[in-house]
Amino acid sequence: MTNVRGYVATEDRNWKETQAEAQAANVPVEVQVERAVGKVFVFPANGGNVPVEGGTAVGTATMSDFALDVTNLKTYWMRKPGESLTGNGTADAAAPTAAETGTTPHYYQYAIDPNMAATAVTEFSTAVEYPQTFSTGGWDDAKGLYVVENTMNPDAQKRNNTTRVLVRLTYLPASLQFTSADNSSWADYRGKMMTLTELKQKIQDAATQSDEQMKMPVGFAADVAQLTAEEKNFGKSFYSHNLKYYHQGQNIYATYIRHFDDTKQPKLMAYGRYGVVRNHIYKIEVTKVMGPGSPVPPTPDDNPDDNTTTYIAVKTVVLPWNTRDLETIKLN
């Protein structure tokens, strides 16, 4: 942690000779500190149900875990203040901004980081497979994930620059009837959904039957013939040759971390709509699922954040990190 106000002057009278004097209620010296990172929480916790658009007739979804991706590889030791908002914007006009001062309200502050104008994905960490650092979710303090500050100019608010949350849910389509052999695993080939048992049977039939005979979309037999031996083992999720395989029903949904909400900055791609500012807590609640996700993390690209199609709805609350859960601290 660093002192957000720089050096804080104190007087000789503030130094106490005994512990009792130092702990007296009327003698503390206030020093505001800031953390060099932010913290992200996702709700519900593991096993919690997430409503599905269309209800159980469409499918069911339960929370598994979440991870953070496209995280900044560079940061300043102390926060570098950027332009702050001086009011709220509209759908057609970005919010007015000015240089941050000592009296700028916390909820209008943004920041500058070393990659603020970067457009190259190499400036950030990205996942080839699902990241190893994950949380099972919930509001408990131990379930939050720390993340390095990541801010950007308006035109750099793109998927390969913006820290994202990868939410993993167990999503099971209602149209499928699972057996114990399926272990909730299923597949989607160009819109045709199958349990693992059904998929294996279709692959076997493809050796002697046409796509039309199998009642499968055109290209199925040719595509499954190109699957690797590892993929045909069906030991983990994959997306290959138009076949999406969801091992044990695990679906991944990417959502991008917002900083200024639609009250402050409703104009699309306006300053500060996305990003992570240190010393903030980002509480993200998954409120609805609109359909299947991806079996593997989608590759970050340079499409604008505000032009991103997602299949989950989230509610984000951004809070200054001023929560306290400390025992009495004694300085000897």
Written overview of the protein:
The chain has 332 residues and is mainly β. The protein has two domains: 37-172 and 248-320, Immunoglobulin-like (Sandwich), CATH 2.60.40.3690; 175-245, no CATH class. 8% of the residues lie in helices and 26% in strands. It has five helices and 16 strands. The chain has helices at 19-22, 196-205, 211-214, 220-224, 229-233, and strands spanning 2-3, 33-34, 37-43, 49-50, 59-69, 83-85, 97-99, 145-148, 164-173, 186-189, 192-195, 238-240, 243-246, 250-256, 280-289, 312-320. The strands form five sheets. It has a four-stranded mixed beta sheet, with no helix packed on it. A four-stranded antiparallel beta sheet has the order 4-5-9-14, with no helix packed on it. It has a four-stranded antiparallel beta sheet with strand order 11-10-13-12. It is elongated, with a radius of gyration of 25 Å.
- Classified by CATH, the class of the largest domain is Mainly Beta
Helix percentage: under 10%
Based on CA inertia axes, which overall geometry fits?
elongated
- Structural class label: mainly beta
Element order: H for helix, E for strand: EHEEEEEEEEEEHHHHEEEEE
Number of strands: 16
Helical segment tally? 5
Spatial extent as radius of gyration: 25 Å
Q: Fill in the CATH topology of the largest domain.
A: Immunoglobulin-like
What would you say the CATH architecture of the largest domain is?
Sandwich
- What is the spatial order of strands in the main beta sheet? 8-3-15-16
Q: How many domains would you count in the coordinates?
A: 2
Show unreliable segments.
none
